[in-house]
Write a structure and sequence with these properties.
Blueprint (H helix, E strand, L loop, with lengths): L2 H14 L3 H8 L3 H10 L4 H11 L5
Helix pairs in contact: 1-3, 1-4
């Protein structure tokens, strides 16, 4: 997956007021690592899927 999609999902999480502690607990990936992926390249599908699940967007 592309980092642009990750950036978009991270922004949606912030806009909804979902805390990074909750996100880290749900997807088992630290916020620092997410920021690194957002700047550096391919993002594992499992991370994108996990973020969508936290947002309630499983079907998208």
């Amino acid at each position: 997956m592309e980092s642009e999609e990750l950036v978009e999902l991270m922004k949606k999480l912030e806009d909804k007021g979902i805390g990074w502690d909750k996100v880290e607990e749900e997807i088992k990936v630290s916020h620092d690592l997410l920021k690194l992926y957002s700047r550096s390249g391919p993002v594992p599908v499992t991370i994108i899927s996990g973020l969508k699940k936290v947002l309630g967007e499983e079907g998208t």
